[in-house]
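Could you please review the protein record set out just below?
***
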Amino acid sequence: MKKKPTLYIIVFAVWAGCAALLAVCLAQLLPAVAGEPWRRGLIAALLALNTAILAALWLGSIKDLVFSLAYALRRKALTRALQRQAAEGERALAGAAEGDRASAEAAEPLPRVLLLYCTCNDFNEQALSRCRRQNYGNCKTVILDDSTDPAYKRAAAKYALHHSNVEVVRRQDRSGYKAGNLNNYLRGRSDYDYFVVLDSDEVIPPDFISKALRYFAADENCGAVQARHVASEGKNMFQRLLGRSVAGNGRTVQVIKNFYGANALLGHGMMISRRCYQRAGGFPHVVAEDISFAVEIRNAGLSILYAPDIECSEEFPSSYLALKKRQCKWTQGNLEYMKRYSGQIFSAKMAWFEKADIILSHYSLPVVPVLSFLLTVCTVALGFLGYPVIGYALAVYAVMLLFLCSPMLPDLFLCRGKTNFLLLVPYFIVNVATYASLAPMMLRTVALGLLGKKAVFLITPKGEGRTTVKQALAGTWGSVAFALVVGGMALWACGSILPVIFIFAGCLAAPFLALLSDWELKERNAGRGRRPAAAMQANAPLAPAAPMAANASFASAAPLPANAALASAKRRRRTRQAA
């Protein structure tokens, strides 16, 4: 699948126009600055800095807006293109299988696939059992257990004892975080063809492996396939509201990246070939091993494909405090990624627009809070200099409002024609407030990282129970203090908190956001009669003793025509190309 730079040409063209608008507004503001020369110079410098920061922030917002609008306008065409790709993979497999029936290769076994379940004090028996219900005959489950809690160790060992074709692997040296755990098992092995990485709370569909193999068959250069993810139905108000963002991004922006951007890996729900793993040199021992490994894959000359037709589910962090811990890990990881991989990205074997997409997608997490803080500092400093309100043209403020909403445009497509459209209102409010309130933590994380603190892989807490008022206050006091300081400074300097209202209101609301997880919700299907067949299958009673396809003897299953011919399909394609 050849990618095109069309959208990024549009992104930079629109950004140039918006930057020109800001420059014109700045040129109109500067002559009106009065006072002593030093004061005029300082105000002019702050206005120029403020304008430059706005322009930098707008670039990412324009990318979000253009990608969302492109999906809205080209959804049907992109869907047809993906369907053609899937059909090509099916034909490649089926054609090779047809030809192989009359050859000695007919007895060739199915590709060997490993289900690598990564866990560290969060083993989830139900999730793993659902993942193992694959309609594929040659896969093996390996529990890569980095747990330190004896209870979780016993649970993993008991699971392996009562289920066939399951192995538990533990290591003495727990260095390298999740990447080290995966490398510890994979390095030096050749007894597999593909592996699937699973997180502890993830559920992949029964046809995950068979569908993913189609992508490898359709594109000989494919090294990894990343499935689409949605958040499982939240058990409380916090989970249900903020979990919406997972599905929106996966259905729109990630699909667009298949054609116009750089596909990334999420670290789970991904299938990787042995050839890809070996050529990329294994997973880098960093916190953000997924996006770092994606760069290594592209440098190895292979590609990553996004599979929107393979839907996996995962739990959104169960509480504000759990999300805060995950966001801290992501901020550390992305900052480490910036420091370690910036040089490689610029020299990578990728098109210029793919590099731009990586930078705008992955650098934003540590960069945006810093730029937003600098805007706040500029605003307060201008207020103390007697310039309390920046008089940009009305068009600038209209663009600001549009860009503020642009990251949530994908969710509009999910709610189109549905009765839960009104849920976008509380979702928007809670979303903006939540991530605004996390800014002080992210600023502190970036500052410590720049000062040399090593990034640490933090495990996101799962199902930690109710949040007490004391816990809410203890976990959010930094945000509240930040709100009071910023709000007080703005009131003193500018005579109003309006210039910093978003960061002030968001940080001040942090304790209330932390208590949203105590608002428990019932399942939507509860009490409505018969549940959907898919839901019934996902929640069926586990029967360890009953043989499942996923538990068949590894590397000994009889070939299935649709999948057994994967390797042969690639051989035939290479033969045709050579001819």
Notes: DSSP finds 24 helices and seven strands in the chain. Residues 526-553, 555-565, 575-579 have pLDDT under 50 and may be disordered.
